[in-house]
Amino acid sequence: MIIDNEPATRAGIRLLLKADPEIEVVGECATGYGAVKAMQENLPDLLFLDVNMPGMDGFSALEAIAGEAHPHVIFVTASEAYAVRAFEVSALDYILKPFDRERFERALRRAKRFIQQERAEKLEERLLALLGDLNAETNYLQRVVVKNDGRILFIKTDDIDWVESEGNYVRIHVGKESHLLRETLGRFESQLNPRKFTRIHRQTIVNIDRVQELQALFHGDYRVILSSGAEVTMSRSFRREQLGV
Predict the structure, then answer these.
(1) Which of 26, 46, 149, 198 is the most exposed, fewest CB within 10 Å of its CB?
(2) Which one of 121, 156, 175 terminates a domain?
(3) Is there a single domain that holds both residue 40 and residue 149?
């Protein structure tokens, strides 16, 4: 949404935004009073907001919608005097008139990155909350959420072959792939169903259903061969009875 009492400024901003296919201008206003009503009706993600406008200035317009869904703001104004106050209300940028295309596009890129990141974080929170509700229906973890290269992966615990400790992390092995999760092995083990997963070594947990073969080693240890082809060691000091040894 573009809020500025100067028609030429609104037209210039609109023209610059038109070149971006990710942007939709949902409204324009020439006064602060009009902006409040328009913001309440349209709920924009981003405002290009002037400070000095007749009747109600830009800061007053933002205060008038306090407590509601607050859009992000790029101030576009002719005065440097309001810069500190602008960032006190968490403005994403502060553009001084007159401005050129390069300055405007730099501010827009920054705003888009911020909004996209915020959306991703909110989506992740909702998904985690949903998974938490699903997991709460049972006593044990049903899915694991892992961040990997900008992706969020949802791994069913039944699909896990084995888990190993790497300091303050665990590495989850699923077939040919593995994923790091910031969690201690002990805490992770406490969330798994002990009828399906067992600790076979100080640093290793296996999915019992994935165990294909046991091979005796020295001193009572065993080599555990999983259906994925992975081989791990079972120490005699860890719960061998769960594997029938």
Answers:
(1) 149
(2) 121
(3) no
